[in-house]
Amino acid sequence: MGLSDNSIGLILAMASSAFIGSSFILKKKGLKRAGTAGTRAGIGGYTYLLEPLWWAGMITMIVGEVANFVAYVYAPAVLVTPLGALSIIISAVLAHFLLNEQLPKLGILGCVSCIVGSVVIVIHAPEEHTPNSVQEIWKLATEPAFLIYVAAALSVVLALVLHFEPRCGQTNILIYLGICSLMGSLTVVSIKAIGIAIKLTLDGVSQIAYPQTWFFMTVASICVITQLNYLNRALDTFNAAIVSPVYYVMFTTLTITASAIMFKDWSGQNVSSIASEICGFITVLSGTIILHSTRDQEPPPTQGTVTWYINGDSVKSMEEEHLIALRNSDYLEP
To answer: How many Å apart are CA 113 and CA 94, to the nearest integer?
Structure first.
């Protein structure tokens, strides 16, 4: 007895999370090595392209994304998307052992809150009605509600890239990951269309000749390239144990929103499901704030005692003397 489509999608999604979670660490180590030899990716450098370890992480991520892509062909997004939480756990554990990154107890609480909130949202999200052709998806994608979402998403991305990134991209993790997540929500709907086209083609109903198929492939390519570029910057600038869960939360939230708008699945939900989704969003938001606040809570450096020897026998410590007068006129400006 063979596996059902949902079972195949489930296995592929879990494998995808394992590969993607590992790729965060490999790419982070590669970015660190590249940063010591040239311009860091966080400030626009591309020396990481010469680092083999970064490419190992890149290949691992590609394998994970391919597995994720195929998973969307066999299973609905509401089943595939939440399993991305596994990559958070994997990357956090590997970051602890391989990158010596510490996640405070409050950060662990934030991570758990993000996962729980996201799972609640996915559990109570409306079921997806999978289209049967690329043309059907195209009709859904060109309806006013989704076009408004696309216009809003692209406007926010442009604002983040042109206005906010130069000013606070190095200090606010939401800038880089906001760009990744917004583009990622558009990637998912494009990948779904491509997956349906591939599946129908393999079943004998070719979708290659339709221009919509190539349009969705172009959109997916542009979005993926943009995601990878800004994800590299986020990893090079911020703690990997923080990047993974925040990225997951934002990506999951925006993906579910884009999918719901495009497929009109919000209509017909009962009050209980809507209330549960709102609670899930609040939990996710709280977890994101907690995770972001723990980024700067590094243990303060151990303060030592600084001692000066004056005239060979006089000793002053930091606590006893806060100002040293330079009596030698050679150190003074004329």
So the answer is: 20
